[in-house]
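Long-time lurker, first post. I've been practising inverse folding by hand and with some scripts of my own, and I keep getting stuck on stretches where the structure tokens seem ambiguous. Below is the full token string for one chain I'm working on. Before anyone asks, I'm not after the true native sequence, just a reasonable design that respects the backbone. If someone could post their per-position residues I'd love to compare against what I wrote down in my notebook.
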């Protein structure tokens, strides 16, 4: 039986009490420039050709931070208006890929800079008006959530 990263005693899962507002309904695949880096874990696969795969069932909070107010409503960073093609908020897929890549940052070889650039690229593809603002915010503040690489 193949051991996964999640089985490692050093693996720290995401916070169980975080606010998850989205849950992926189908597997998601995206071709990226992350070629030459293969990686496989429960919620993220990166193929050698650069394809990023996030499986059905993955849950995340959209653009961070977000907080639940007594389970009545969520306050935090907006995810944008609904994209007419996907019927999801404009940052839906960008925030999902960004969260999954950051979740496993300590274990794969993709840099923070490259992850953040992909986040920007995906938001720009959806013509999200605040793409650059969100990009600069993650460049400035996301280091707080990232654990060191473990190679």
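-- Answer (accepted) --
I ran through it position by position. Result:
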């Amino acid at each position: 039986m193949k051991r996964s990263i999640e089985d490692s005693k050093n693996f720290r899962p995401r916070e169980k009490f975080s606010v998850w507002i989205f849950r992926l309904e189908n597997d998601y695949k995206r071709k990226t420039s992350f070629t030459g880096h293969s990686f496989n874990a429960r919620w993220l696969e990166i193929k050698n050709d650069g394809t990023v795969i996030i499986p059905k069932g993955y849950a995340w909070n959209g653009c961070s931070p977000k907080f639940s107010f007594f389970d009545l409503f969520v306050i935090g960073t907006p995810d944008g208006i609904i994209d007419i093609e996907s019927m999801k908020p404009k940052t839906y897929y960008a925030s999902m890929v960004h969260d999954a890549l950051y979740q496993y940052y300590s274990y794969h070889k993709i840099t923070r800079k490259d992850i953040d650039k992909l986040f920007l690229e995906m938001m720009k593809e959806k013509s999200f008006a605040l793409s650059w603002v969100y990009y600069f915010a993650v460049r400035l503040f996301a280091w707080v959530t990232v654990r060191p690489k473990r190679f």
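A couple of notes from the structure itself: Residues 106 and 150 are 5 Å apart (CA to CA). Strands lie at 22-23, 28-31, 39-40, 45-46, 51-54, 59-60, 66-69, 73-76. Happy to go over any region you disagree with.
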